[in-house]
Amino acid sequence: MIKQNVNIVNFNILYKILEEIKENLSFNIIEYENEKDFNKQDKICLKNSLTIINPDKANSDEKNLLVFKDLPISLIKLVELININLIKLKFNHQSKVNINGYELNLNSKFFSKNSVNLKLTEKEIEIILYLDSKKTKQNVLDLQKNIWGYSSELETHTVETHIYRLRKKINEKFKDKNFIMSHNEGYFIE
Fold this sequence. Notes:
By secondary structure, the protein is α/β, with parallel strands linked by helices. It has six helices and ten strands.
C-alpha cells in the first residue's frame, strides 16, 4: 500500500515530534521550512496529500490544509486528526477518476457518463485502471499476471471472457464499442 504524504510547513517542532515516531505512522512526513519552498512543489503531487501549517503563520489558501488552532493537543489526538483527514482526502480523491470522458467512482463502483451509470465489479475496475495506466497495448499474458496473478503456463480464457463481458456492458449502457480497444498486440484504452 502506498502511504499518503503529510506536508509540514513552517512547523519545525511538529515535524521533529512526528519524525521521532515515524515508524508508527501510516503516512509519510515531509518538512518545508517556509511557504515559499512549499509553493514551489508540483501541485499535481500535492493533490492527494495533506498539508499542516503552523497556526501562527497560516496564510495559505492550500486546499488540503489542516491548521491546529486549539493547541496544545495530545499526540494521540494529533495523529488521529491527521489520519481522519487523510481518510477523507483519499475517499474524495477516489470519488472521481476521469478516464476518456467517463467518471469512475472507486467508492461506489459506478462508471458514468452524461448522468448514465453502470455498476462495475472490482475486477472490471481493476481492468479499466490497469489498462488506463498503461500507454501501450497489454496482451493476455500481461493481464493474467498483473490482474489475476496467474502464471503464463496456465491455459485460460479468463482475460478474454472478462474483457468481452466488460466491453459488452459498456456498449449496451453507453453505446461505446471503442472504450477498450483490441489489437493483435493486446488490449488498450486510448
